[in-house]
Amino acid sequence: MLLDFTEKGIYCAQAGVYIDPWKPVDKALITHGHADHSRWGHKHYLCTLQAAPVIQHRLGKIDVTPVDFGETLTIQGVKISFHPAGHIIGSAQVRLEYKGEVWVVSGDYKLEDDGITEPFEPVRCNTFITESTFGLPVYNWKPQQEVFKEINQWWRANKEEGKTTILTGYALGKAQRIIQNLDETIGTIYTHGAIENVNEVIRGQGIALKSTVRVTQDISKELYPGSIVIATPSSVGSSWIKKFAPFSIGSASGWMNLRGARRRRSVDRGFVLSDHADWNGLNTAIEECGAERVFVTHGYTSVFSQWLNEKGIKAGQVETQFEGELAEIGESAEKEEDPA
């Protein structure tokens, strides 16, 4: 096989490269900047031009080579290129070709165009490595236009009641998607420090993002009612949140599709919004890539691989350390707590 699944990660022996390895290696191809895919300690990193700034922001001083989408590198006879995954800004699928055999490592992906992320691009291949974070038929996302209509209506209602609206989302990806789709005519968009740090990196890339204001100690508490605060999930229940009272808290996550998820996260409203493909999206991606063999990584691996086998696609489960949207709960990438 062109790729092997090792204790360090997905490995291409011919090229001597790993894709999203979870243990230190000499050369790592990184699909995107979330902490479960982009880890510190590798000697050399390759990623997209669009993902590199955030990865460098998160990991500090690293040796990184950024490449453009569609640009082909040849390493020891293996042709390697990055293609849009639609997950977050700069996220990529990695295509590897050697002696006519083509593999695609999808990383995390979604098919819906969210208006800020490079849209998902189907890549034809023989073997496709897919996530299955939401690999059950129950996960069927509404168009984001409908979701953001609900979010903006909730914000308006809170404003009329003199409340601050607090909406949580992962600092990299989800937060920027939320910001870009809010109706800023309703009021001011404030952000948690960890989110605003990422916003600054993204704006520094020349990407247009709606105006936001970092929450600081200098801001009068009287200014928050009627506004919206985009916060990290870990801030719920913390002392940081108290300054916004009276408030209503909401969560934007694919897990809001599950009964009881809102109660477990101690929020008032839940909005089903995920940066991962739903059941139909997973099936469409696999159909469009034309792969005759599929390896299923994190998520509902058993159910989804069985489903693919029943459809006549040779599929198997692979154990990895990727977390999918579970990372939104632990927030391992968000260690920058704002003291304000």
List the helices and strands and how they pair.
Blueprint: E1 4-5, E2 10-12, E3 17-19, E4 27-29, E5 44-48, H1 52-59, E6 64-67, E7 72-75, E8 78-84, E9 92-98, E10 101-105, E11 127-132, H2 144-160, E12 164-168, H3 174-181, E13 189-191, H4 193-204, E14 213-214, E15 228-231, E16 247-252, H5 261-264, E17 269-271, H6 279-289, E18 293-299, H7 301-310, E19 314-317, H8 327-330
Parallel strand pairs: 3-4, 4-5, 5-6, 10-11, 11-18, 12-15, 12-16, 13-14, 13-15, 16-17, 18-19
Antiparallel strand pairs: 1-2, 2-3, 7-8, 8-9, 9-10
Count of discrete alpha- or pi-helical segments spanning 4 or more residues: 8
The rough form would be described as globular
Query: How helix-rich are the residues, as a percent range?
Result: 10-25%
Residue windows where pLDDT falls under 50 for at least 5 positions: 329-339
Could you report the average pLDDT, rounded to the nearest whole number? 93
Number of domains: 2
Number of strands: 19
Q: CATH superfamily of the largest domain, please?
A: Ribonuclease Z/Hydroxyacylglutathione hydrolase-like
Report the portion of residues in β strands. 15-25%
CATH class of the largest domain: Alpha Beta
| Distance between the amino and carboxyl termini | 52 Å
Structural class: alpha/beta
Spatial order of the strands in the main sheet?
A: 7-8-9-10-11-18-19
User: What series of H and E elements makes up the topology?
Assistant: EEEEEHEEEEEEHEHEHEEEHEHEHEH
- In CATH, the topology of the largest domain is named Metallo-beta-lactamase, Chain A
Task: Report the biggest beta sheet as strand number plus sense, adding barrel if it closes.
Answer: 7 strands, mixed
Give me the Rg, rounded: 20 Å
